[in-house]
Specification:
It is built from 9 helices and 7 strands; from the N terminus they run E-H-E-H-H-H-E-H-E-H-E-E-H-H-E-H. It is α/β, with parallel strands linked by helices and 211 residues long. The strands form 2 sheets. Strands 2-3-1-4-7 form a 5-stranded parallel sheet, sandwiched between helices. The chain has a two-stranded antiparallel sheet with strand order 5-6. It binds BIS(adenosine)-5'-pentaphosphate.
């Protein structure tokens, strides 16, 4: 099963992908996570990517396409994978085709922008194990502490109000056209993301044909 999770920043792609990993045992490939890892390790790619990420812009296609190709070539992707945050541009989508990667379904998570801003500004991350929380919708048991690994939760640099607005603008211009792109290929299924995390997941299950 090869699935793309499409949708604006903060719509809940990462949250849904983590549930799919638990349920289906295939890896989540988040280009955002791969890039943040490169930044943390101060690789050449990470140093180049940081300035774009902090400003809420997209990292240039040539850098991201190479990173993604390397990741999907790994052994754990043989049975399939969930792409979370890739593709984000038409050239990135085309790169999947030219690499012979056949996508089964594209799940487009939809929410209005006011919901997205609320979700992004309340998001908290565990840098140690990758768990995602929300101060209102999915709070940890103890404020600022990860339930799973007791790591200290952080607010990402790109979750500041002005950067959020920039990310939304970038989404509208560069990523939203992918809905039409995949619609024309008959692969796109839109899901209402303004529902409980459980309900979003059960709708995804239906969309990917795994009732
Ligand atoms: P990336 O890390 O991919 O971030 P993003 O897609 O912008 O969005 P987020 O991860 O912030 O949100 P999400 O949709 O996963 O939502 P989440 O589950 O966290 O990218 C970061 C940066 O990297 C980009 O800006 C860019 O610079 C670069 N980049 C990455 N990929 C790239 C690419 N392909 N090309 C170029 N550049 C790239 O949910 C949000 C919050 O809502 C959480 O707190 C969660 O608990 C809560 N929540 C989730 N679902 C629900 C629900 N159903 N009800 C209530 N609350 C919910």
């Amino acid at each position: 099963m090869k699935v793309i999770l499409l949708g604006p920043p903060g719509v809940g792609k990462g949250t849904a992908a983590k549930r799919m990993v638990q349920e289906y045992g295939i890896p989540q490939i988040s280009t955002g996570d791969l890039l943040r890892e490169a930044v943390k390790n101060q690789t050449e790619l990470g140093l180049q990517a940081k300035q774009y990420m902090d400003a809420g812009k997209l990292v240039p296609d040539d850098l991201v396409i190479g990173l993604l190709k390397e990741r999907v070539a790994k052994e754990d992707c043989r049975k399939g994978f969930i792409l979370d945050g890739y593709p984000r541009t038409i050239p990135q989508a085309q790169s999947l085709g030219t690499s012979g990667i056949q996508i089964d379904v594209v799940v487009n998570l939809h929410a209005d922008e006011n919901v997205i801003v609320e979700r992004l500004s309340g998001r908290r991350d565990c840098p140690k194990c990758g768990a995602i929380y929300h101060i209102k919708n999915k709070p940890p048991q103890h404020e600022g502490v990860c339930d799973a690994c007791q790591g200290s939760l952080i607010t990402r640099e790109d979750q500041k109000e002005e950067v959020i607005q920039n990310r939304l603008q970038v989404y509208r211009k560069q990523t939203e056209p992918l809905i039409q792109y995949y619609n024309q290929k008959g692969l796109q299924k839109t899901i209402n993301a303004v529902q409980s995390i459980d309900k979003v997941f059960s709708d995804i299950r239906i969309a990917i044909g795994r009732k």
